[in-house]
Amino acid sequence: MSVDQEREQAHAYLDRLPPAQLSAVRNLLETMISPARQGLANIPFEDEEIGEDEEQSVAASKEWLKHNKGIPNEEVLADFGLTTEDFERMGQTPLPPEGNGSGK
Fold first, then answer.
1. DSSP label at 102?
2. Distance between CA atoms of 92 and 34, rounded to whole angstroms?
């Protein structure tokens, strides 16, 4: 199939989707072509060795979790005066206007 045929077929499928699924596919496509996602794909694999200090920190955190309940992300965000919506908005590139997660 040529690229034009592929595109035509994709459009035909989109035209048949109900609104909720169309929205989900749009979000997926948006994520796939976002500059941030493309940038992440080009970041070289981290091959730096883990130092002794880092290993000790990881071991200490694992030990702490054996005796304590984990802290929910919402609670950590609240300590910084943020909401889950704020956090999600900060992860988008470019940032949408505040109070409007759609970027419109």
1. T
2. 8
